[in-house]
Amino acid sequence: MPHSIEYCAGICQSEENGSFLTKDYDVRKAFLAGSIKDVVSQFGMETIILYTAVILKKRIAVHHPRIEALLEFTRVLPALSWHRKDWSILHPYVHLTDTELEHLSKCPGYIAGFVDPEVSNRSDLFDVYVNLPDSIITVSQNAKEAMMMGKLHKDIGHLILQSAEDTERSDSHVIKDISLKTKQILAHLGTLADQCEGSKITLEHLKQQNFPPATENFLFHLAAAEQILLV
After folding, report:
1. Measured between alpha carbons, how far is 79 from 36 in angstroms, rounded to an integer?
2. Stated pTM of the model
3. Radius of gyration of the chain from its Cα atoms, rounded to whole angstroms
């Protein structure tokens, strides 16, 4: 007579397998799979480009001919916006077919992996293109304005580099350091939003703060990504 198995929300019991509780599985371990330190080791200060693209919900296309390398690299990138904990933006293995590209086109921002080198010629698919074998990051022409770099980006880049190069800090520590910096920026953005009607930031209000142009531009696009921009 077969073993009896009972199913209910969050638990599976059987005489053979004992019990499995979904609450016992720490989803953060899955989120932290892969190494942010390896990413920083490969791209150095240019990691700030990846950080900015993820935090602003831009379209990132990554190419590598080996699927294993592609999967390992792409699954790390959503952790750059740890406060969202949104791995649904990750499409680690995409083919250049009409069906898959149509699905991708419905996503406002994503991290997509491709083994087909032809993707480099498909500028309609990305704002940022990562040639993983050659360690080259390219910002597309239509995203250069939103991705303009300034002192704030340089400061964040140095923080990422310093944290990742610290041999005593683990990958989770590096992610935490980046997340804390992001939360500081978001808290400042939230304070500015609270000063505006309906807690929605306007470009006019940002201009009144006399930020450097690159910082103002970044905060404007970040407010849009966080859905606190009045348009």
Report:
1. 8
2. 0.85
3. 20
